[in-house]
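Two proteins, back to back. First:
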Amino acid sequence: MPLEYRHSPQDMSDRVAYGLTKMLRFFADVFFRKRYGHRAVVLETVAAVPGMVGGMLNHLKSLRKFQDDRGWIHTLLEEAENERMHLMTFIAVAHPNWFERALIIFAQGAFFNAFFVLYLFAPRTAHRLVGYFEEEAVISYTSYLNEIDSGRLPNPPAPQVAIDYWKLPAGATLRDVVIVVRQDEAGHRDVNHAYAEELRTGRSEGKQISEPGEKSELAP
């Protein structure tokens, strides 16, 4: 799927998810502006929440209903871990100050509880919301990349944690890190839109939607 893919809202569930995403994007743009490293530090702490919540609730559902999860739990928990590694990487790039650390605690606590309730009662909207979040993440990292390429932001050596996690070459730079992180976000975008599509249409009953690292056939 193209890197610039955008899902057009189809119904009220999609429009609610899309509206929430645009509202949160507005506040993020006002607060962070072009401080992309600091934006990544704060937002990745939130981005790691949906996969953990979704994995946990699907785990409990599988136990409660005595049915296979069709790969959802593994995929969602892997997404949460991947987003956590994004955070570990950008902490080494942009060290958060005391205010940003306080903001992280507040944002994570508020978002976890809100997303938990949303996923409990409207999982399709929750997955669509994450899909739209990831669309915005791709845009943000593309802007970050453009700032680096233009010379307006520095391009220091990649943090060792990123080199180890993505198996980057020893001479990798921040630019290389932004590229692989953006690709991760595009993958999460496709998987969450695919999950929302299955919940909307009921397709692929009894079949795993996707294997980690593979394109889903249900991606719209």
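And the second protein:
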Amino acid sequence: MLKRSFFILFALVSVQATCNYTFKDVSIPPEVKTVSVNYIENRARYINPQLSPQLTDKLRQKITGQTRLTIINGDEAHYDIGGYITDFSVNTSGISGKEASSNNLNVTVHVIFKNRLDEKKNFETDITRNFPFSASLSFTDAQNRLMDDILKNISDDIFNKIFSNW
């Protein structure tokens, strides 16, 4: 009985600690109620037609799932998030013998954040991530395999830049 009570107490403390950590990282002033997430246009030299709509959707889902903000369209939103993809390219990252052994898929998104309640907090920044893959894969195969990671990591980085205090 004592072991069982200890286990339950430990589980509750662990859950409480996890919850506090998750919510402590997101910082949104109480007066902020709405956000507009504009379509993230693809202006890169190489355009993957799936990247813009999927990244925009992933960011909207993340904001809806992890904040109390309501997503609206238009200029009335307290926060306005937009941007565009500036880079979607490949470069060699490793050579074995005289051939490429690994590559990086490079993705950069220029983020534009407007705080309509406090214009001093407006900013623009670039979010860049490199996604390694074997040189034995074609560019098309690499994109297909990496797309979930690209969407998750880039949307996480954008979210953290806007909503976290770190």
